[in-house]
Design goal:
Layout (H helix, E strand, L loop, with lengths): L6 E4 L3 H10 L6 E4 L14 H6 L9 E3 L4 E2 L29 E3 L2 E3 L6 H14 L28 H12 L5 E2 L6 H6 L18 H10 L4 E4 L2 E8 L6 E8 L2 E6 L2 E4 L3 H10 L24 E8 L13 E3 L15 E4 L5 H7 L5 H10 E8 L8 E5 L2 E5 L5 H17 L4 E6 L35 E3 L14 H22 L3
Parallel strand pairs: 1-2, 1-12, 2-8, 3-18, 12-20
Antiparallel strand pairs: 3-4, 5-6, 7-14, 9-10, 10-11, 13-16, 13-19, 14-15, 15-16, 17-18
The structure holds flavin-adenine dinucleotide.
């Protein structure tokens, strides 16, 4: 048994690193247990072949789908978690995302609190992650009490031209809110950052921002290569007594005053389910039978707008978004989703997705395409779920609201053709890529219908918090990481109060 820290945080991604940053100045001893290692330079981090063909950075794990078929998920286990690979589009959920809304595929339920409750926390995490953006361009932007801390990442000339074409269609393209220092990033290689691993070279991610802030305090430390297998409840079940960890093949137990589980939406649910005991046969924090349910992961497609007469010489490309179809279809109909540029794709990435196509044709296409990412809300469904079968993870994802995504795809095809791109190709992202996984240990104000209270504390246990994308009750249709971070800083504020009480302050 390792000597007991005041707080154990499991996972150093967006949720775990941000909660640690929020608690570091309490002076409490904080131990972060992270299964991955630090990403170091020199392993093909700017090579699209290494990243997208050889899958060098992806976990080697196999999960099973709802039909029992094994698959290798697009999950990344490093210090900093999935944020090391992310596109760093750091959006606030829209005000309407916190309210119940009718979608083509059903109702997206209300959060236990409105947007204004999370607004100050959004401002703080925008400062922590040094977000670049500009207010006043996106008609769906919710109220901000603080402006973006930095001006937006500039459009490259080819993208400035796309912006003007969209405006001429009467649309409202806006500068994506981004967490990247583009000059530093490009100094490490003239590549996009989206989907590329960050070896501390300009991306504002969980390691470079929140973890760095946390580790600046002597009372915070991280152990890497430390995979948490399960939690153990104390007799009576109200408290978590210890965390079972495997490190370099050896098992050990860590006792803690407070446990913060931040292993990502699939792994946090799996850890709770694997922690079943005689008193909690369905797993810990699961008196409501909600753990693992309501798995969501956005319905997404890549869309290539191609003008055979014009080359797109953008390097990073990812500076524009479009929310004209976010709150309605543009004609008073239902919400459809968000559109944003992808990092510039190349022929190697296309070949990884279309292996039957000749590479020269794909190189030619990629040099002329403007590449978009279309994202629609997935709705919470209790039968869309993570289960465990012994050591195995089963991800039985039932997608919802595909109608909205099909309509968004059809509308954007028309928009891009009207903008002067005669060829528009679309391909849905496949089911093995749970990049925006969420919802599996959700917050709520009814203990019979949620696993966590609105501050991410388990209803069933006094010293257990789950602070990562698991806690989101809905997926909205913008990228989730900033919301995960805002919820983490807010949860840290609640935990801080119990730490200070324990210290008699
Ligand atoms: C390619 C890609 C692009 C993306 N682009 C964007 C984007 O542009 N904008 C955006 O908002 N979001 C983006 N996302 C999503 C974003 O990265 C996630 O929403 C965010 O990282 C979720 O935070 P989290 O804390 O839930 O999980 P993570 O950040 O993944 O952190 C989980 C951590 O727990 C660790 N862990 C897992 N299991 C264990 C265990 N058993 N023991 C110990 N440690 C464990 C993991 O190694 C990891 O460090 C992207 C994701 C991917 C994969």
């Amino acid at each position: 048994m390792t000597p007991s820290p005041d707080i154990v945080v499991i996972g150093s991604g967006m949720g775990g690193a941000t909660v640690a940053a929020g608690l570091a100045d309490t002076g409490a001893s904080i131990l972060i247990l992270e299964r991955g290692e630090r990403l170091e330079p020199g392993n093909g981090e700017r090579s699209t072949r290494a990243i997208f063909v050889e899958n060098r950075f992806r976990t080697r794990e196999q999960w099973r789908d709802g039909n029992g078929r094994p698959f290798n998920p697009g999950n990344f286990y490093f210090v900093g978690g999935n944020s090391k690979m992310y596109g760093a589009a750091l959006f606030r959920f829209r005000r309407e995302d916190f309210e119940a809304r009718e979608h083509p595929g059903g109702v997206s339920p209300a959060w236990p609190f409105p947007y204004r409750e999370l607004e100050p926390w959004y401002g703080r995490v925008e400062a922590l992650y040094r977000v670049r953006g500009r207010l006043g361009e996106d008609p769906t932007e919710p109220p901000h009490s603080t402006p973006y801390p930095h001006p937006p990442v500039p459009d490259e000339p080819a993208i400035a031209d796309v912006r003007e074409r969209l405006k001429r269609q009467g649309l409202h393209p806006f500068s994506l809110p981004l967490g990247v220092d583009v000059d530093r990033w490009l100094a490490g290689g003239r590549t996009p950052w989206d989907g590329h691993p960050d070896t501390r070279s300009g991306k504002m991610d969980a390691e470079t921002c929140a973890l760095a802030a946390a580790l600046a305090h002597d009372n915070v430390r991280i152990e890497t290569g430390a995979k948490v297998e399960r939690l153990e409840a104390a007799p009576g079940g109200r408290r978590i007594a210890s965390v079972h960890v495997r490190q370099a093949g050896a098992p050990r137990k860590v006792a803690a005053g407070i446990v913060v589980l931040s292993a990502g939406a699939v792994n946090s649910a799996a850890i709770l389910l694997r922690s079943a005991d005689g008193a909690n046969p369905a797993g810990l924090a699961n008196g409501s039978d909600q753990v693992g349910r309501h798995f969501m992961n956005h319905n997404c497609s890549a869309m290539l707008a191609i003008d055979p007469r014009r080359r797109n010489d953008a390097v990073y490309q990812k500076t524009l978004g479009l929310n004209d179809f976010y709150l309605s279809d543009g004609a008073g109909g239902p919400p459809l989703g968000n559109v944003q540029l992808l990092g510039k794709i190349d022929g190697t990435i296309l070949k990884a997705n279309l292996p039957w196509c000749p590479k020269p044709a794909l190189d030619w296409t990629a040099r002329r395409s403007v590449d978009w990412y279309l994202m629609s809300e997935d709705l919470p469904d209790p039968d869309s779920r993570v289960r465990v079968d012994g050591e195995d993870i089963v991800l039985d994802w039932t997608r919802a609201n595909l109608e909205a995504h099909e309509r968004l795809t059809a509308i954007m095809r028309g928009v891009l053709k009207a903008c002067g791109y005669p060829v528009v190709l679309a391909k849905p992202f496949d089911r093995r890529t749970p990049s925006h996984q969420c919802g599996t240990v959700r917050i709520g104000d009814d203990p019979s219908r949620s696993a966590l209270d609105p501050h991410c504390k388990a209803w069933d246990h006094d010293n257990l918090y789950v602070v990562d994308a698991s806690c989101l009750p809905t997926s909205a249709a913008v990228n989730p990481a900033l919301t995960v971070a805002a919820l983490a800083l807010r949860a840290a504020d609640r935990i801080r109060r119990s730490v200070l009480d324990a210290q008699g302050c």
